[in-house]
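Treating backbone geometry as a discrete language has practical consequences that deserve illustration. No coordinates are needed to read the tokens, only the vocabulary itself. For completeness, the protein is quoted in full, as a sequence line and a line of structure tokens:
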Amino acid sequence: MLNRAVRAADRALRLVRGIRRFCDDPECLYRLSLGKAAEDTLLPDGTHVRAGETIGILHLWSEHVPAIPASGADLAWACRTLRAARRSLRLLAEHVARDPAWREVRAFAADGLFLQAQGGGRVLEGIGFITVRPPEPLRAGGRLALRGRKLWAWLLRKAFNPRSARGLGPGDLFPRYLWLTRRELLQRYAPRAGAGG
């Protein structure tokens, strides 16, 4: 019953936040929305994202994340998930290169929560993302908001991929900012004929 409620709340939040699919591929791991950069950020490839600039926001498409097998996350599952992540970025690059609405968007961001002990950050960097660990919030409101985000991320794991939450609590998840510049996305993943931009 709780999982059904979480799924329903997730659907409602997607509508409110304008989160949409950019393709119909059943292996695509991301949905997309537009947002504004919260602060000035200089990324390693020289892209300077300014506060208030329009950016693309990537959201995990929970229903499409490969289910962890009963025996637990293994190498086969990890390889399948990595293939899906690369395929998803190729699909995103095709969409961005083709759709004029995304021509001025110079960077994409995601706000993820990861297990501290996993090498997920290194894997994401290997496929083009820049990972940044944000500073710990100093104010009580910020700490409370982070706890709420951790709880929500854990509930989503339980609802969409229950084995990924086995033996974990919300406190086991730690935030990472993820960035992917348009330049990096298109250089790595766009079809050669549409790689300009």
Observations:
- The beta strands are 30-36, 41-42, 48-49, 54-60, 107-115, 130-132, 173-181.
